[in-house]
TrEMBL record:
InterPro entries: NAD(P)-bd_dom_sf, PRISE-like_Rossmann-fold. This is SDR family oxidoreductase. Gene3D superfamilies: NAD(P)-binding Rossmann-like Domain (3.40.50.720). It comes from the Bacteria. It comes from Dyadobacter psychrotolerans. Residues 59-355 form the PRISE-like Rossmann-fold domain.
Length: 355
């Protein structure tokens, strides 16, 4: 029996890179999203509303996936609303597929907010974990939509008999347009604006992030990890951290990113400078840059998510992820973090998204 993949969130950083990998490996691959992705050759796109069970049931009527990869989420004003909406998205999707009895495995992507807390209480004193974070760390005693999404997967697995895997990447670095959590492209847009306006490329985060150790997750490595877990019996019914496999300090990487854009940089100066505030008036500037260089995307909000980069770089502690669990089972994937950023910048240039 051939593998039939359903990638939920196929237009995002994680979903689009995963869909490309699956197709390259010969999987019959469907991509579900609100706005279908037509850029990936071989992807069978489905437009559906995850909050509408009737719509999902109709759109998925003739599709019997063997593997479901859930990479989507929806941002809301409060964590209570995040929980209500994002758990319903997972529940509706799995309910729409339940009667088919075709699903063998479900992979869910969450992230390090599993350990650091939700947006409302992100990395606040009293909830800070020991680092590097490890999968055995208990859940925090706070509301968290990642927990709610996991619980929906566990309940459906118990009911329908499929296996599952949970994937917790650090900041995901990869190309996507319209993504809500996109540090790499956000920094590329910020650096481009700094170069055009003569502003310094100023590190917006905390002393702990500037001086401490960090890691990130390349979108292509995350895709490989998800496929590995879905097809490796020893990895079934397990939660995994996923990171590149190296560590770095922002005080080392920041100046190299600046040099790649030929801009002057400044580091941590004793105060956290919000990137969201720094870029709040840059939408007209980006439109001018896009017109000057004939760029594909003139809407800065389709490329940059400064609010989320502020969350990542403003943490009051250094954050690394332990990958021992995956390594022991046999996942050996590795990605150089500097290459993750520089490869992304070249891709953005080659696709005419930055000058």
């Amino acid at each position: 029996m051939s593998n039939i993949a359903l990638v939920v969130g196929a237009t995002g950083i994680t979903g689009s890179n995963l869909a490309e990998k699956l197709i390259a490996k010969g999987w019959n691959t469907y991509g579900l999203s609100r706005n279908p992705n037509s850029e990936i050759s071989g992807l069978k796109s489905i437009s559906a509303d995850l909050l509408n069970l009737e719509d999902l049931s109709v759109k998925l009527r003739d599709i019997e996936p063997t593997h479901v990869f859930f990479t989507s989420w929806m941002r809301n004003d409060t964590e209570a609303e995040n929980i209500r909406v994002n758990s319903a998205m997972v529940r509706n999707l799995l309910n729409a597929l339940s009667s088919k009895k075709s699903v063998q495995h479900v992979a869910l992507v969450t992230g390090l907010k599993h350990y650091l807390g939700p947006f409302e209480a992100y990395a606040k004193a009293g909830t800070l974990p020991e680092t590097p974070v490890r999968e055995e760390h208990p859940r925090l005693d706070v509301e968290n939509f990642y927990y709610a999404q996991e619980d929906e997967v566990y309940a459906a697995a118990d009911h329908d008999g499929f296996t599952w895997s949970i994937h917790r990447p650090h900041s995901v670095i990869g190309k996507a347009v319209g993504n809500m959590m996109n540090m790499g492209t956000t920094l590329a847009v910020y650096a481009t604006i700094c170069k055009e306006t003569g502003r310094p490329f100023h590190f917006p985060g905390s002393a702990a992030q500037w001086n401490g150790l960090s890691d990130v997750t390349d979108a292509q490595l995350l895709a490989e990890h998800m496929i590995w877990a879905a097809t490796t019996k020893a990895a079934h019914n397990e939660a995994f951290n996923v990171a590149n496999g190296d560590v770095f300090r922002w005080n080392w990487l920041w100046k190299q990113i600046a040099a790649s854009f030929d801009v002057e940089h400044t580091g941590f100066d004793g105060v956290i400078h919000s990137l969201e505030k720094e870029m709040e008036g840059d939408a007209p500037i980006w439109k001018e840059i896009a017109a000057k260089y004939n760029l594909k995307e003139s809407d800065i909000n389709r490329l940059a998510s400064a609010w989320h980069t502020d969350l990542d770089l403003g943490r009051p502690l250094e954050v690394m992820t332990d990958m021992s669990k995956s390594r022991k089972i046999g996942f050996t994937g590795y990605q150089d973090t500097r290459d993750s950023f520089f490869n992304l910048f070249e891709k953005l240039r080659s696709e005419n998204l930055i000058p």
